[in-house]
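Q: What structure does this chain adopt?
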Amino acid sequence: MEITYRYEPNFLFVELCGEWRTEDMKHAIEAVRDNAVQQGLTRLCIDARKVLKPDYEMIRFYTGEHIARIWHQPFRTAVVVIPEIYNRFGETVAVNRAAVIACFFEEKDALGWLLQGGEAGGR
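A:
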């Protein structure tokens, strides 16, 4: 998984690119958290439009579970995805475990939610 960071005044913008495998995604989630902590940022905008569809559905479950464990409060995370691979499963798993995360198809919508303080899990 390739990770690119861009530092904004109020949030960390992250682009993920590559195959969606359980261990690779877990390492990416941890790397993003560590980078955000080093920068003193708790709002994350993740552009995942270049992440490939996982080979099986349980990868979404494990990803959501790890997100909740790693990006818990005070983190607030907006994820930009493409409709072709999105099915709410990973997002629902994370939100049900108290992560403040929501997925969007448009970057402007993700940033609006991220910076306005809307409810978790809302598109």
